[in-house]
UniProtKB/TrEMBL annotation:
GO terms for molecular function: ATP binding; ATP hydrolysis activity; ATPase-coupled lipid transmembrane transporter activity. This is ATP-binding cassette subfamily B protein. Residues 400-643 form the ABC transporter domain. Gene3D superfamilies: P-loop containing nucleotide triphosphate hydrolases. The chain crosses the membrane at residues 48-71, 83-105, 174-200, 277-300. InterPro entries: AAA+_ATPase, ABC_transporter-like_ATP-bd, ABC_transporter-like_CS, P-loop_NTPase, Type_1_exporter. It comes from Kitasatospora cineracea.
Length: 681
């Protein structure tokens, strides 16, 4: 949970109130909580400024009324109303002069509040929500709503806070005008116009907030529309959209989705905003009309002085204008607070249950290798690939076991893993192979603790993994996902991600890049490791798919050097051909010899050199053993291996000449790969 947020209290509205009132109270409380994020000096300064801006027009009314009242005397040779003129001029000039400062104060308030709440949103999105949460529609809607509040397409929570403060000016002005009407015309008409003004205002705010609530229920549609708009105007699918002739379809789909979202929204707006407006206008007419009638009567009967007439006339107009839309507050508080509401709901989601107890001492990064952890594959120093630095394996974590593990993604969904038993011996490589949908990536998610088993348990060195803090385990495991992220950051940052302390440790970064076979490529970039890996930036440069894979591998190598003890490679080789993939995995196995590692692959021929191979089928272990044992078994592995090996051999001929379309042409490791026939023996 973010630390800077006010303590998450459940909606503190008294039960039993009508929903409309509860919503209003909730919004007031939310606005007050946002204002509490401000430095007291900023809050006091901005409030004083708004009060001044609100009251100056009242000073102007009073001064001009004195001026008007003094005019007849001045015409007959009496003294000129110099003081009143000066006060009116000063009030007018000051009002104009303060306007930019008022805007500035609003900007400062908004920036300060947004700074805090954006940090809260990031903490919530990146830390407070787990992978399962991020697949829930409700959570995605709330996230979109909260994020929308910060992308400046709609008002932000900070602007809602600034808009709330700006109301001070409006209400101070209303109070000032009512006082002038009271003094000049009488307290009953003053009460009447003020009550009418407040009634109109309440009606209008209520309609706006009901509209906001109705709009908030349509976040799912808005998200779909935003996706289509981004797809149609962004660069993500630009190539495919053209190649597949998707442009007309996208345009039509966008129009249809826009209608699906906008038409009900427009209808709601008509229902909630326009119709009540007629009733509210009638209330305003009654209140203002009554006061004006009294004024006219008083004028005709000469019971009011010119000063009273002038002051009351000007002052009555202020409450009559009070029922209008406030451009400095209304949209800001409406949408900005909706975004803040969404963020608050996310923050208040029940936190994940903490682990039963802390990690046992021998399993912490600082604790060194547990008894069971001695690498079985010999000293890492012997496992150095050609030209590379020794692979500094982190302390092995002990045998990792999936014990009778079953898993389903949703409570009402089918099991995708069924009573799975899987053992990952320390210091050994285990390949998990299987056809599409067999459950391989699900195993990775469980190992990485992005998900927890529905039944059964995972143990590390005999200790239930669920008893260890997730963050601790994440430091001990380096995963390269199928869809690993390509960050538009420098090469050095891309490698150091997750290990920020090592960002400035150039030798460590270079060693990791070297081990992953990408150092030469990165050194050749315009700014070496300081080059941004994206052509969207000046001086930046993009990499090929295979080079990106090596950057991801370098990230894992760095994690390993920094104490990670389990490496997981979830088939990040989708765009490699069969031969380059085999070469990639071979290199991976070489440079990680002596490290506990898991390789996921659906090409059986790619991972034959792993110490142990597990064949998954329909979420169950179908076969397991070494490559030779599995071939001797002559079962599913042998059948699929031979089928894929035939393709591999057939593919080898065209690749005898380096193919520029695949990355391995530029990759010394790939070119060093054994001839296909030999590799398959
Ligand atoms: N987030 C999810 N929600 C619901 N079901 C899912 C989710 N992810 C995967 N599945 C289902 O779980 C099963 C196993 O998927 P998984 O991704 O683990 O397979 P895989 O062996 O890695 O496949 P591939 O080789 O295609 O990557 C599939 O039936 C899939 O549809």
């Amino acid at each position: 949970m973010p630390s800077s947020a006010p303590p998450p209290t459940p909606a503190a509205t008294p039960p039993g109130l009508p929903e409309r009132l509860r919503r209003r109270v909730r919004h007031r409380l939310a606005a007050a909580r946002l204002l509490r994020l401000l430095h007291p000096a900023l809050l006091a300064g901005a409030s004083a400024l708004h009060l001044a801006v609100g009251l100056l027009p009242i000073g102007f009314i009073a001064a001009t009324s004195h001026l008007i009242a003094a005019l007849p005397a001045a015409r007959t040779g009496g003294g000129g109303p110099t003081a009143a003129l000066l006060i009116a001029a000063a009030a007018f000039v000051l009002q104009q002069a303060l306007a930019p400062f008022q805007a500035l104060a609003g900007e400062l308030v908004a920036r300060r509040v947004d700074g805090v709440r954006i940090a809260d949103l990031m903490a919530c999105a990146l830390d407070g929500l787990d992978s399962a949460d991020l697949e829930e529609q409700d959570v995605l809607d709330l996230l979109a709503e909260a994020r929308g509040g910060f992308d400046r397409l709609s008002p932000t929570p900070g602007e809602a806070a600034a808009g709330t403060l700006a109301l001070l000016a409006r209400y101070a002005q209303l109070l000032g005008a009512a006082t002038v009407v009271g003094i000049a015309l009488g307290w009953l008409p003053a009460l009447l116009v003020t009550a009418a003004a407040l009634a109109i205002r309440a009606g209008q705010r209520g309609a706006l907030s009901r509209f906001g609530a109705a709009r908030a229920t349509m976040t799912g549609r808005r998200r779909r529309l935003a996706y289509l708009r981004k797809a149609a105007t962004g660069t993500g699918i630009a190539k495919e959209a053209r190649m597949l002739g998707l442009v007309p379809w996208l345009r039509e789909r966008h129009t249809a989705e826009a209608r699906r979202y906008l038409e009900p929204l427009w209808a709601t707006r008509r229902r909630l905003l326009f119709r009540p407006f007629l009733g509210l206008a009638a209330v305003g007419l009654l209140g203002g009309g009554a006061a004006l009638t009294l004024l006219a009567r008083g004028g005709a009967a000469h019971t009011l002085t010119l000063l009273q007439l002038s002051a009351a006339l000007q002052a009555v107009l202020v409450p009559m204008r009070f029922g209008v839309f406030f451009p400095e507050s209304d949209m800001q508080t409406l949408y900005g607070l909706t975004a803040d509401d969404a963020l608050r709901t996310l923050e208040q989601r029940p936190a994940e249950a903490p682990p039963v107890d802390a990690a046992p001492a021998e399993a912490t990064p600082a604790g060194g290798a547990p008894a069971e952890a001695a690498p079985a594959g010999g000293a890492p120093a012997e496992a150095v690939p050609s030209g590379g630095a020794p692979a500094e394996a982190g302390p092995a974590a002990g045998t990792i076991r999936l014990e009778d593990v079953s898993f389903r993604y949703r409570p009402d969904g089918p099991d995708v893993l069924h009573h799975l038993d899987l053992e990952l011996p320390p210091g050994r490589s285990t390949a998990v192979v299987g056809l599409n949908g067999a459950g391989k990536t699900t195993v990775v998610r469980l190992l990485a603790r992005l998900r927890e088993p529905t039944a059964g348990r995972i143990t590390v060195g005999g200790t239930d993994l669920a008893r260890r803090p997730v963050a601790d385990w994440h430091r001990r495991i380096a995963v390269i996902f199928q869809d690993f992220a390509r960050y538009e950051l420098t090469a050095a940052e891309n490698i150091a991600l997750g290990r920020p302390a090592l960002l400035t440790d150039r030798p460590a970064l270079r060693a990791a890049a070297d081990r992953a076979g990408v150092l030469g490529v990165l050194d050749a970039l315009p700014n070496g490791l300081d080059t941004v890996l994206s052509s969207h930036y000046r001086g930046g440069s993009d990499l090929s798919g295979g080079q990106w894979q090596r950057v991801a591998l370098a990230r894992a190598m760095l994690a390993l050097a920094d104490g990670a003890s389990l490496l997981v490679l979830d088939e990040p080789t989708a765009q490699l051909d069969v031969r380059a993939e085999a070469a990639f995995f071979d290199r991976f196995l070489e440079i990680t010899r002596g490290v506990t590692s898991v390789i996921i692959a659906h090409r059986f021929s790619s991972v034959r050199r792993a110490d142990h191979i597990v064949v998954l089928a329909d979420g169950r272990v179908a076969e397991s053993g070494t490559h030779d044992e599995l071939l001797a078994l002559d079962g599913e592995y042998a059948r699929l291996f031979r089928a894929q090996a035939e393709r591999f051999t057939a593919d080898a001929a065209p690749h005898a000449t380096p193919d520029a379309s695949t990355d391995h042409a530029a990759d010394p490791a790939a070119l060093d790969a054994p001839p296909a026939e030999e590799a398959l023996r």
